[in-house]
Amino acid sequence: DCEDESPHQRLRIASGREAKPSRRIVLVRRSSPVVSALAMSGGRCLLALAVLATSGALAEEKFSCEVNYGKGVGSWETLWSAEEKAWCCEHKGLACPTTSKPLFDCTEGLSNWKLGWSKAKKAWCCMHLSLGCIDAEPAHKLLEKAPEHETAILADADAVLHAAEAKTCGVSAILNSEGKFKPTQSLQPTCGPQMTTNCSISYGGMKCPAGCDFLVPNHRFVCVFECVSADQCSASNSNRAFPNPETGLCTECAIEGCKMCEQANRCTQCHPGFELAIDGGACVFVLDRTMHPDTLVNALKVFVGLLLALAVVWRVVKGQHARHENNMTAIEKARRHRHFCKVQDWALGSNRMVRSLYPLTVNVQKVHILGVGLPLFYTSISFICGIALLFAVGTWAVYTGSPVSQALSATDASAMSLLSTAIRLPAQSPALVLSPMTFCGQASAPDILRQMREFASNNFLLIGVLYVLTFAASLVHGKYQLQAARDYDAKNKTMSDYALRVSGLRRRLTDEEKLREQLQDAFRKACPEVDQEKGLEVYGVSICYNYRDVWNQIDAMKDRFMERVEVDLQNQYANLEISKQGSGENDSIEGFVGVEQTSAGSQETMELQVAEDRKQAKAWFDEDSPEKLSSTGELFVVFRHHKDMNTVFANRDEASRRLQSLSASEDFPVHLHKVFSEPPSINWWHLAVSGAERNTRVRNAMIKILAIIVVVQLCIVLPYAHFIVAPYSSIGTAAGGTKMQIAGMILGNVNMFVSLQIFFTSYGLGFHRKDGMDMMILCANTALVMVNTFFNIVMTALMVFSRTDEGFGIEIFLSMKSLVAISVEGDLAESIYHLMMPGTFFVGYLMCIVMAGIVPFVWNSLLMKIIYIWRCLPDCFLDVLKVFLPWAGDLTLEHYPYRRAERGFEPMEIGISWDYTSMIVTPTVCFCMLFFVSPYVWQTFAMMFASYIFYFCFCRYQHFRLCKTCYYTTNRLDTMANFLWGIPLSVIAAAWCVWGLRSGHLAPDASVPAKLGLVGGAFLSSLLMWVLTYWRLLDPWTQRDAHEGGNATFDEVKADLLYSWFNCNPVFMLKCEFYWQDISRHVGACPRSSEDDATTPAPLKVSIVSARNIRSSDWFPAMGTTDPRCVCEIKNKPLARVETATHSNSNSPMWDHTGELPHYSDGDSLTFSVYDKDILRHDDCVGKFTLTGDQVRAGFDGEVQLDAGQRAHPSYLRIKVQPPQVPLPQTTIHITGATGLHDTDWITRSDPYCVCHVAKRPEDQIVTPVASDQTHPVWDVRTGLTLEVGDELVFTVLDKDVLRKGDVLGTARLTAEQVKRGFKGELELDKAGKRNNASEAKATIKVSVRPPRQQHTGVTRQCPKVRHPIACGEDPDQVRFFEVGKEYLFVNAKKQRLVQKDLYDHLEIETWLEYFLTVWGRITNPCWSKASKALPGLIRHSSRDIKSGSEVPPPVGRCSSSDMLLKHQLIAGP
Fold this sequence. Notes:
The structure is a single chain. 43% of the residues lie in helices and 13% in strands. A 5-stranded antiparallel beta sheet has the order 2-1-3-5-4, with no helix packed on it. It has a 4-stranded antiparallel beta sheet with strand order 15-16-14-17. It is α+β, with helices and mostly antiparallel strands.
């Protein structure tokens, strides 16, 4: 009840009931959002009820501290008990020892204590220090006026209500013409200038003079206000356009865009950019009235709806595409190709899993995946996380430790919205009087400015320390990255370790074999330390051809070649399926294509293409041809051994001298260069571009990109900001609705267009290596994003400045002289924070998944279906839609080749060069927050820290489940990013300079231009210092080859990496295929004969056909017949087995089951066991039979009698064993015995046995027999295992126990290098237990390991007219061209089912999108079928579907796409 003048009566009313003696009402102050909101409510009386969260905070008073304390100075010291003193000191701050902190600092604001101090402070200081006692009535006398049984009021808050009652608050300072607040002797407000108040509860005690009747508070500093006329309310505070005559305050208006409200819901004048409605009930945005965006969108919706209706009718009437089945097969193949494009872990030698996805938690620092660029990128993210955390902690500590944080604690949130969530009115709760103005009486405006200057000094020191720490940490990080790159190179064998680049050769030298011989001879002569005959071997040469003029023809021929290779693989697999079906097996898989899905479309056309390609290849590679392709004068020479490359490079001067006969001229001698890039990172098509030409292109490209950025900013972004953003910003809100959707679509497409221009421009500049193109993309994209971001920040600053009539500019950041300027500064900081959070920090990354993953997949799927499956629109419309389908612009509407569909479905590449941009721009913007006085500074760094943790996880998902594989094989991109890191680092230096100017430590009397020069100089000096320090101190551009150990050959590394210097060179691949081979068929591969298939290594095949007369092992005859199953095991390899299913209730089961045993070694015996399945106990063995090693080697097909024990019950088993002519290469393992084993049994001696298993695959194991009562057992077990490259062997000796798990007697391990070289000898057993004395012999195990004689499966096949060893695939695990997404072509047809295994991962968005397409097909299929049957006379095919000489396929009444999706079973779970 604001009309009642009695404070005690107010409290009684506020409490909602009469106060009882046992219940006391406590009056306190709080700085909280609720408190801040109350000052904005506009009432003369601010009383509210609230509930504190802690129950003990408002417990009933145990002692009347305030009343008893005020009855006499010193009385509490002698009359109070120790308990009462302790309680009052802890809860009230009274009766504390003299060493405790005083309640008020009476020296603070002493110069303006009359107007600046609150009543409570005056009373306290007068009582304790005799300061401020002139007109202050003692606090204890004021408290004596209140009945003790009603209220107990805190001594530091007693004056809150009394000040309002006595009208003693008012104006404490006025803003003068110099922009400083000066104390005033009058408490009454005046018109015009900004003023501060010492009122502690509300503005109700002040009244503005005539002519400026309305008081409007500053929305940032609650203690600052001004008196304005009714029409100037929104000019001072855009959120307060309604001059409330009842309260005398400018309050909020309910109408958006209103400049002056006549009533709370009626406007009389609108802001610029808005037009007033006729009834005054709304302000309409000008563009909404003139451009009618809603009408345009509605018209577009109608057009799309009509188009969809036409499509449905056309689909029902015309039926499907005439070639919809072939096109659908191509589309399905393309969808599978999208999965293959992801980052895969390929293991060609494995017989269980040749392809798998990397886990998201894979250690990229230890596993060679995409090159050294990937681990360096993630290390950089971790580094920025640490920097963000450092700045968050530092800025938080300085800000919260300063009184400035209280002065800036006001909020712009609506009072009623805060009260509705924070205020509760339970009947049993005590009342609290809350106000955000409580600190207004404790510190005057000069005091606040003084605190601001102290804050500036602290910030100056803090930012200086942070800059030094960040600079030093950045240097350490840069050095660590360079060392990490060298360590990565040392740990991983790559193609660059086996090659040298030779330059300066004659361009007509293009005979690879002749050049190989010449180079090998010259190198042997130049290196006297090697054997001149066979000590140094050149594996081959890869010539860098100049094909810049026939680029498109080379790519087209390459695509046709890849199509033929895939068709050949399909034919091989089809032949395997036919043979399996003939033998009763069926292992078919989906995902292959035929000739019909290729660009040729038919067998005859493909044969014509082959003939044309042969003719063209002859013209390119014949010595006498006028069209002969020349080289660029460079080639890559590949050595078989890594040490040979190092030896030649160490003698490079002598080697170059011996090669001068091959040089182009004396001015350009032959030189040898180290190679640091991998073959996929070589831009083979640009190798003919000279350095001068490339530099010219780069210069022109930079001018072009800058021009595009400027044009986009001036023609699109600036009008958008001026006509849409600015009008809404001037009223303190943000635009929304249809216009923002349209503007967002336009800006998004424009930014995508600019990004594509950057990519394609960089792609065509002529960089020889991909890292050069990546650095260009990084610099250009950083410039684009930096310009866009800071353009938005500048526009935001201008809009913030436009909200006030003070005319502030950049000078407000160079001084600390105005609270109003600091308020504007806080607004700008808040705007930038909301610009970053959550959009830049989080939402932008999530939108990448939508815009780069979901939208293209759905959009391309829809267009492919509309054009090539349903053909549900007229051809003129389909031609228009085909323009928007990637890689389909030059195709017809009839045929959709699968290679085009694959490229249309390919996801975006892993763009680390784009990802680095956010690690430069985002820290730069965040460091710009250091210029401001705002709580949003430390919050920005806290969100930056959280953002980069999220970004780390997001990049893991993006790189391993969303994007296409792309290689980053050097550290040059990371080096360029470290150079660009100088930009955010220099922003810190500029912020340090600004705070030095604001605190007066630097140039206190300098002019504004001079100060701006100092800030700019600090930025440029820091940038120059960083570049020079990083460049000179660390020398990052100099690439140094690390020392690699090991003796791995080129063939072994090629098997792991798949790519090589030969299969990545497109011209060399075409030369091998079309010029060095006699092509007699449509498939560009060497003919495979039956001998090839017969001599191909294969596992042992075992067929368990049937059994008869199997006895029952059940206890009673009534319990049923036998439930038999059969298990075939290799002796000493219990987990290498073939197991049939259980045949229920049958004594003569027919299993007809075939399986493979890849770990079969020549001489191994097989054990067949038949078991009777039981539910309540272990399965009983009802018969066994052992097939000896000789029988297995010779093959077996027949019936054998099972050994049933002592029971005379003959049982028979029919089996078939097919040994391969060439078994899989096996690593022979001989476990001889062990010595020195200790006893673990209490009574008897140990019963040891040994288990040898592969370290990463425990299921691949060998188990020896048990040697009873032995400490020096002899097992003498010799067998083999099929190992993969890098496998390690673990030998574990255990003690066999009956009643418990066997004890481990010791373990030993052979490393991958030992397994590879072979080993014979004793290994010491670890964990072998305690010995009785130190002299006792150690426990050892004697083993022998011999690697297979052939490291690669298969045999060498010679093709006619072959002049190079890899021309027709001497290595069957290699294909003649490497391309991302086509790695499965490296795998032979027999393993293709392993390639397709587990292709779909539930973390890939495509898996779920394809599942939804399957569900949609199930829903729509019946509809199409019914519509087709309902209109049988209308369904016909137009002339566009009829070809001469071919029949029109019958109409199909169901959607084949969903049928195929269901048939392929795209995912297993849903």
